[in-house]
## 1
Amino acid sequence: MAELQLNAPVAFRNARITNPPLLVSADGRQITDAAAWEKQRALIERDWLNYLGTAPYAPLDMEAKTIRVDDLGDCTATEVYLKMEPDYFEQCYLMIPKEKPAEKLPAVVVFFYDIDTPADHNMGSSRWKANVQNRAFARHLVKRGYVTLVQRWVHEGLVAPEDRKLSMADRYAKGVERLRTLYPHWKGLGRVVWDAARCVDYLQSLDFVDPERIGCMGHSLGGKMALYAGAFDQRYKVIVCSDLGIGLSFSNYDAPWYLGPEVRDPAFGRDHHQLLGLIAPRAFLLIAGESADGDRSWAYLNSAREVYQLYGQADRIGMVNHRTGHAPTMDSLEQAYGWFDKHL
């Protein structure tokens, strides 16, 4: 059974990411307390947001279009489109348990390519496969009493039906060009941050959701989305990422739908231990499988744990390494759901 680890194995205990240093200020001083870290945190956040870009239009009123309501037995689910741009709505799926243990429930946003897979319900996605239980995160969580909101990734929403069988690069090419034309200073993962914040806005508008108990989760692409969502929106109290490739060098972050080729430049000067630092002291769990993530990922968690220690919360960052490849195992998911139960 995959075990929850709060400390790295001995062989990786001293591994750290030092470029850039996380707990050294711009004037070379060592950061040793939470107050000093908060100042450093603000600088890191501003630098990243300047790089990622943000919506070049005025804040939008919350607008949700209900498409259909499904009775899935143990829950009621609503396909809803949330307004993300002045003229673009993103597909989401709101799942509400029928048996509510409290007046206000915790909620988890689940990020993925489509809404069908995490909901374990076929709504016509070209990615749908029946009985893929190790991706059915939203359905599992709603059975545990959570409200869940599945959000489709924007680039899947922008794919034309005739392009769905193309290679990833060709499938996303038109969407990448559209966003570059309309919003040239907005990175793909910057757009993810914006959309994820809109998901929280929506959940907080629902009277049966506890606005202070919202988390997020995702696998692979969805894990990347969850990392960026949690790093730049403190309303996400618990973040679970599965085999996303926690390091910039671990995955295809240079793809134009994520960040771009500049992340491969040694002078880029940013890496994801900084995002983990931004999440601290909120709870973060990495599911690894010795594929995109594994023992080598401890360098990132170790670096961030030093920030968690400044808050006296070193036990709020950990890893479950099932060592069986890219896909999460059911026992690793049980550990993740238990992490939500404990921290959310």
## 2
Amino acid sequence: MNYPAFDPQWKSYGRIESLEVRGAQLVITLQSQAVLKVVYQPEYEKFKKDDWVAVDQKDRLILVAEALAPGLFSEPNEFIKKWSQYFFYVHEYFQSQNFLLISTPSLVKCPGTEPSLQPFETQLKNGSQAKTRYLPTSPEIHLKKTLTLGYERIYEVAKCYRNSEITNLHQPEFWLLEWYRSFASLETLQTDLIQLIGFLKEKLPCQGPSQVRCYSVSSLFKKYCDADLKPDWLRSDYQNLANQLGLKTNETYTIDDLFFLIMLEKIEPHFPKNELIFVENYPPFQAALARISPDGWARRFEAYWQGMELINAFDELNDPHLQRQQSQNDLKKRTDGLDIKLDEDFFKALDSGMPPSVGAALGIERLFMAMFGVEKIQNVRLFPIKTY
């Protein structure tokens, strides 16, 4: 067939959803739901569903591009337009709250030091020279560098990358919203999340949580495990509790593994799906880059809704010596064989002084899933990475 170029004089155009002969007319419904009506001609018999057509100035039907084979998609993704609007309104909310939008690199010296996250590694070449670089697992390091410049409210919606994660809730490439406030409390970040959800509900036809609740980790251990959790518990204490609860473990389980197992199997299943649940004050070994409170708990929280962990938030560590020590300890725990180095520019920035700050990382695809009732993250994306 001839593939004509676009003609500005075409009256209408689009992809055929259905066609029907009605008397002397051919009635065509396009995928856009527009309806075309032309005088029926025998040569129009060749037109079929999924063909691209146009109507010229003489009301003749023109074949623009024939559907020679099934497309990539069996049907249009109903969430794509909603996602576009949602993405816009996420930015609009933070702009309305006087946050500064930051753009951080996607090729970095240090992807992050958290031992449970496996980054993507690549080579940066310049002539005969080559240096190892990574795709970021989060924009955290560069956003904290920005805090040292004196910007008190900053955010970014960044593409992030984590290897070995393909499930109904995980994609190796995903969107992460991070925002930071200097001279603010963790409670302020909880309010930010609640207000963001409320703002999106006003703009879009979606659902919100029926109620908001907040628990400490120790209160959840007491409620669901009948255990008096203390911040100085050792691995043996978690192992004993796991045994009492009938959980299967082995000697390779670290204290982190045991904690996650108890949370995943005995606590999180009790969270009502329709409620937004904040969980705060974690054991100190779960501090990551959070401050430790005077009573020994890590000053951080997570939030759950619709059976998903949505957010991690921290009262950020800004002591450069403690930060370096924690980062080095994290690197020692890595088992993936990657020779990741610390970003020394980050520590130079911390040495210049980072004000007391709080920060949050929110998976915005998961928030979208919770608000629109989507069960699989693959359904939020046009081009998801599937299992292989």
## 3
Amino acid sequence: MKSLILQFCAICCWLFSTNATSTELNKYEIDVWADNWFAAYIDGKPLLEDSISIKTERSFNAETHQFSSSLPFVLAFMIKDFKENDTGLEYIGSKRQQIGDGGFITQVTHLNSSSVVGVSNSSMRCMVIHKAPLDSKCARQSKPIAGKGQCRFTAAAEPNSWKMPTFDDSSWQNATEYSSSQVRPKEGYDQIKWNSGAKLIWSDDLEKDNTLLCRLVIDGKNDTSPTKSEHTHTEKHAHFKHFANVITSEDSTYLNIESDGIPEHNMMEGITSWQQQVPLPQDYTGNNSWKIPLNPVLADIPMLTKDHFHKGAVAIAVNGVPIFNALNNRGEYSADIGELDKWGGA
């Protein structure tokens, strides 16, 4: 009886929190493109599945489907990037052997009004349930074996009831948005006229994360503008206030971040491949402070950190510590070859 009462309360909370006051059925159309495969569910029930099997190595296509539902409803997606096995690799044994990369985009249109009522963006919550390989060097193995050496992987079971509207996904990570130059969407993508607010998404690792579970709430608020970067003064500075060595300010154009570049925690523990470098205090103050645009604009020609920015810091963390390219000056992932300490610093 107690279990039934809790379930009833959870459903009531869902209904009231989304201001659902109508059970009127409306007609919608959903567009989906995935690299490489997806299955979609609406309030726990199957809605749409990629027509091309995940076993197909190069499966790129868009799917469009019409359905009826009342507001609010939750769309749950299982999204998979192709992998031959648990190594996470594709084209195994050939000269093209490599780690694949994923990508996903969707939009939901209310057919009567032709308005887009839901899109994929960083507000979606996602959970990674398969990650491989854990070491990028696995792709260089002549005979990669899943679970062995550099080809280890992690896998998790689907959480119970994750497709249901009452499921609590607050502990899941927000999706990461990617540009089309990063995902390089192929067949089917250009067949859809995508709303400007619909973004290509994945987890924060476009290559090693192979299977995702993601959720999208459609509540009728019809906010499909591009992901908003505007935040209040308090919100922007709150991220840094926990660290005594970080001072923030702002002018009409930039958020200014000052620090000495040194974290409060220990450093250099766990490094197994030393580049003969040690962390030193930095003078990130005054004119040399970090300046983050208050209203950033996407570059006309985005540049990947894989091919650029191999010298000097590329960003700053909320604790005032500079962030460098994940690749060292030889083009190797520093984390994979032991150049980082147990806090992720060099």
## 4
Amino acid sequence: MWKKAFLLVIPFLVGACSKSYENIHEIEDSSHSNPIHNLDTVQNEEDEEKRELISKYVEDLEYLRDNLPELHKDISRNYDAQVFVGEMNRIIERANDKADEIFIKHEVMKELAKIGDSHTNLIFRPTRYFPIRVSKFDNYYYITATTGSNPKILNSRIVAINGLSLEEVSEKFSAIVSHESNFALDFKLPGILHQSEYWKMIADNEDFDTLEMVLLKEGKIFTYELKESVSSRVTLAEKADNFITRNETGRIYWQAKIDEDVLYIKYSKCKEDSRYQMEQFVEDVKQEIHDNSFTKIIIDLRDNGGGNSTIISPLYSELENYKNDIDFIGLINLRTYSSGMLNSLSIKGQLDGILIGEPIGQKPDSFGDIRPTSTPNNLLDVFYSTEYFQMSQFFDFIDESDDTLYPDIHIRYTFDDYVNGSDSILEYAINYKT
């Protein structure tokens, strides 16, 4: 805190008095100029820090320009590598003029989106949020969580945001979200609609702190404004329990006997459960099959976003022994992704099963097996694909032009299912007769 300095002078001579007062004036003038000088100094320091930060961004941009075309499995499959280099040079040239972090990230994300690879993404860490969570049901977007101060909007359907229909919102986000098909974009979009920086990007990096939404709830349309926050926390949600939530154990994979002839297996992530090894799980499933007379086993891969596709292989190898006596059904949806998709293919290819549910969130022939870049300053780190999985070469039910893995039987999980605790996909699978 700057404080004014006071000088007390008791003059004994006239000359001394004049001189003393003159000194006081000099001190007072100097003291009044200090805050301005200090502000200038602070501003100069801030400007210098910003210049240094932008120079570090430029170093990371140059690294991506020079290395990503070589690191990525095949950047030229959907994009011209030389065009990528030229566009990165353009971003580098403009970075110093704009001197804005969001602008730089926006431009990089646009370039990555052109590669047409859902797995090649900028590692983006948002810092500001709108207090909602969004889910997609039946091709519509709903607010499924919010804060206690916004109960009116909970479970309402989004009609428009900031004057844009959801189709227009999707189109604008498609320019900055890495995706290989519209299904991949639909998979990613609900998870980022609450992140303020994304909205700033599609608003051409203008200041942006408000969502103006047109919502539909209980047959009534209304408008509602949300202000951004530094907190991503939401506390209010209404979802009825269903079979899965009533039976889940908190483990990555688990089993439950639905009735005398149906065994249900949930596999929520392609990852080894440290508390319940896959080897033990396979033994438990084997014992359950031995102790019962199952005619159907349902393997639920909905919402499985991937991981290590080989984790479930021992289970499939065991189940393969029963495929002449037991029917296998796999459940999939838009959030079945990456290794989750690969494991879905094995239900058909290895277990001679069928898939029921909704199209998944990626193409069967697609990039994957991601690695992180190591940019000099870790400001623009990117996950990139090191492999291209051409599954159409191994499965005759896939064509290389397919934009998703379609289920054999298309059944929707609806918003009514969500709020009422029902599950149309699982119920259909239980009752399905071969």
